[in-house]
Amino acid sequence: MSTLARRALAEFVGTAALVCVVVGSGIAAQQLSAHDVGLQLLENSTATVFGLGVLILVFGPVSGAHFNPVVSLADWWLGRRTGSGLSGVDLTAYGLAQVLGAGVGAVSANVMFDLDPIQISRHDRITTGHLVGEVVATAGLVAVVFALARSGRAALSAAAVGAYIGAAYWFTSSTSFANPAVTFGRVWSDTFAGIAPASVPGFLAAQLLGGALGLALIGVLYPDLSAVADDVVVHHAQEPERPAPPMVSEDSKPSVLFVCLHNAGRSQMAAAYLTHLAGDRVEVRSAGSQPAEQVNPVAVQAMREIGIDISTETPKILTADAVQASDVVITMGCGDACPFFPGTRYLDWKLDDPAGQDIDAVRPIRDQIETRIRGLLDELGIPSPA
After folding, report:
1. Which of 103, 93, 18, 87 is nearest to 56 (CA)?
2. Which of 104, 134, 279, 349 could form a disulfide with 206 if both were Cys (CB 3.0 to 4.6 A apart)?
3. Active-site annotation holds for 338
4. Global pTM value
5. List 334, 355, 373, 377, catalytic entry
6. Catalytic annotation, pick one of 131, 135, 181, 260
7. Which domains are delineated in the chain?
């Protein structure tokens, strides 16, 4: 199965399961607490929080666990210029999988509770307050997802996204649909959890507006957001399927190439660290597809503080020959695409971009690079000094 097909399948099954949780718990709540709407909402929201968290953990490493066309659309929008995030083809596959999965999830919930499989909801939800609630709910969801990705905390998405949705059930008048696919799925349930077809267009418009507002806010708060499009909701592999060959044969000197867009910051620091720690036991290169005129002065300063001088280094253009000559190629989370050659190991390190940052912001990036370099040396079987 191709990588895209596998990811689309994850989105289909994950969205189906999510809607099954939402609709199924809504049906159960209505049956268990027929005369207490507040208790019904508590039961429905609690199941959704836990179900969503588990689904993100299960499917996140495969597809990113979007389960939401607004999140996928935002991911595509951010990455369209840098080559990160979803492509147009990916976006189409994700959207179709999510919508179809939502319908299957709702029908499955109906069947589980011995209801008619196909129902049309009569629950009219269109009011000004509900629409404002959907704008707020979706803006907040997108802000949470992309703030976590941009700040390098995407691993917390299962807990944070689940917690936000659980809270938004209660603080928004619409009970936080915040998801066009889920909205479509809930049309097929004439229960507490449903939404009448006539209410859907307004909800979809509100969700798209909310997604745009949330993304605009995070774009202001977290510049260079496009660099982390691959981390939404959870970091997941985007490259074509490739075998994972050994780092290097036992009887040869390993060769490592570090790649970032401008070869002016992260890749230069990584190359210098590896040279410093490994000496002549590793052949080290660095390059970028759009090399800058000089190495970032703040990166130079940060490395000088620990006794490593990169002031004489010059950014270099990335070439196919450099990639082919390397045993390990490491990109730095900045959207650079490397030619693929069998036998080469490809890694991607997600690191903040030091461009435009002051020294206090660059020092943690430098320290993260050191930690990763020491881990790389362990994988290569090369001892590193303490």
Report:
1. 18
2. 134
3. yes
4. 0.64
5. 334
6. 260
7. 3-231 (1.20.1080.10), 255-380 (3.40.50.2300)
